[in-house]
Amino acid sequence: MKTSIRRAALASAAFALAVCGGVRVAAADPVQWNGKAEAPHYKEDVFPPWQHGQNNDALKRGFEFTVPEVDDLADFHGDITDPKLVLYVGGNYFFAMAPLVVEFEREHPDYKGRLYWETIPPGLLIKQIEAGGTITSGNMTWTARPDAYFAGLKKIDQFVKSGLLASPAVPYVTNTLTIMVPKDNPAHVTSLADLGRPGIRLAMPNPAFEGIARQIDAALKKAGGAALATAVYKTKVADGSTVLTHIHHRQTPLFLMQGLADAGVTWQSEAMFQEQAGHAITHVDIPTAQNSTAIYAGAMVKGAAHPKAAKLWLGFIHSQPALAIFERYGFKPYTPGATGG
């Protein structure tokens, strides 16, 4: 009997370790759970979706069924039935999409309730484009071919040249990096250099498909040379103290709020959103001399099903009403001659 209980406990611990990307979680601790099988004690609002249905402009929602941690599809928004505009948006401003859509629909009421948008990382959105707009999440597979795609300006230019996107590339705002930490900053992280310290657990964007990783690498090298970048993205990945995220704008704050990581580099806007949402998150500023700037841009996808709608959104995205929404989260309007990407 004791052997079977021990095996069950080990299996439970192994599962918890696997789902958290190699970071050991307190949930596997029999002392914390009083040696009993219990439902998690997590606060429901720690888990996405964090907008409580606001990032969905569907007019008829039918039966509501959202279960944080289990059934939520937090990066897929709107009604897939018959959209009049499909947007693939690099997820760095998922939180700004609801007010942007509301303003767009106010200006263009014919589109009310007819937008569908996705906010997974830009590299993964390209994979979806290459798959004909088809994606599978959990047990569900659907197809939503994009009308417009949004990412860093350099990537947009690259895909315009390759023929995937139609010219012109439309830049609209810029963003800078910050270090996101739990509200009480228990690891006392004060700078990028601190991220190389042994024992500091990091949640970092994956260079394979998250464009922010390029800017982070540049910032780390400015702060501590190649040695710091290697420590964060090579040495600490190898020893398990850096976990690479799949969707940094969802996972980094989630890991921090659960105590699974001590810090992670994100866009400043993402930390501001978490703070405005009242989550137990704060940030550590990165000096301008060490920081990197991203230029956000978009373009119509070649062969878009709704080219008129795509052009309307691309015109709207750098209008004054749209820029005012972006500025709530620390974005700055793009000005010609700005450097970044």
Automatic annotation (TrEMBL):
GO terms, molecular function: molybdate ion binding
GO biological process: molybdate ion transport
Signal peptide: 1-28
Swiss-Prot/TrEMBL keywords: Signal
Matching InterPro entries: ModA/WtpA (IPR050682)
Pfam families (alphabetical): SBP_bac_11
Annotated protein name in UniProt: ABC transporter substrate-binding protein
